[in-house]
Amino acid sequence: MIRSFVAIPLPVELQQRLACLQRQLKLELPELRPSSLKNLHLSLLFLGDQSQEMLAEIGTRMRLIGGSSPAFSLTLRGLGSFPAGRDPRVIWLGVEPRPPLLTLQAALAEALCGLGLPREARPYRPHLTLGRLGRPPLVRGFLESFRPCDCGQLEVTQMVLFASRLTPAGAVHQPLREVALSL
Fold first, then answer.
1. 11-33 pLDDT per residue, tens
2. pLDDT at 85 over 80
3. Measured between alpha carbons, how far apart are the two ends of the chain, in Å?
4. Which helix (H) or strand (E) is 147 found in, with range?
5. Could you tell me which of 53, 44, 37 has the C-alpha nearest to residue 2?
6. 9 forms bridges with which residues in the sheet?
7. How far apart are CA 18 and CA 94, in angstroms?
8. In total, how many domains does the chain have?
9. What's the DSSP call for residue 182?
10. Is the dihedral of CA 165, 166, 168, 170 positive or negative?
11. Are 52 and 19 within 8 A, CB to CB?
């Protein structure tokens, strides 16, 4: 069984901008554990543990959806936290929930539901996880000062099926299947 998920990868130049933002956050929140740049991605669906056969079928469904989904761009702006309000554990960068993204995510969820994978109970909230907090600080006022931050555009041209292996040093993500969106 392979722990897996489907996501939109981030280009190197965007990873570098996010590294700068992470450094700024770390100065204000020393307890922040920044996400690894190589692991930053925009999640579409977490799949959990899947067999090789199921991953092959997921890849086939992804190819069908990608071929009928046009490429698009997204705006990355504003910080938030999970849970919202008090005692945050995750600091994230907002992703504009534009119709092309929501349509792509819903089509993928519907197609994989047809394979017997369960639907996510929570609504889809696009974001990029910048870091985690082991012990929640008082960050409400701090996040307000960063809320207007603008990290530019993400050009979405593909989605990737990733394997995720948990190690003592953190998760290691390996692309299993890359699917281009139509241009």
1. 999 999 999 999 988 888 888 89
2. no
3. 34
4. none
5. 53
6. 41
7. 12
8. 1
9. B
10. positive
11. no
**pLDDT mean over 97-116:** 95
Nearest Cα to 107, choosing from 65, 135, 147?
65
> Residue range 130-141: average pLDDT?
71
**Each residue's pLDDT tens digit, 22-63:** 998 888 888 889 999 989 999 999 999 999 999 999 999 999
- The single-letter DSSP state of residue 148 is T
Separate counts of helices (H) and strands (E) for the chain = 4, 9
Give the per-residue pLDDT at 133.
Answer: 84
CATH number at residue 49: 3.90.1140.10
Q: Check residues 75 and 170 and name the one with the higher pLDDT.
A: 75
Single-letter amino acid code for the residue at 20: C
Question: Residue 128 is part of which domain span?
Answer: 2-180
Cβ–Cβ < 8 Å for 58, 115: yes
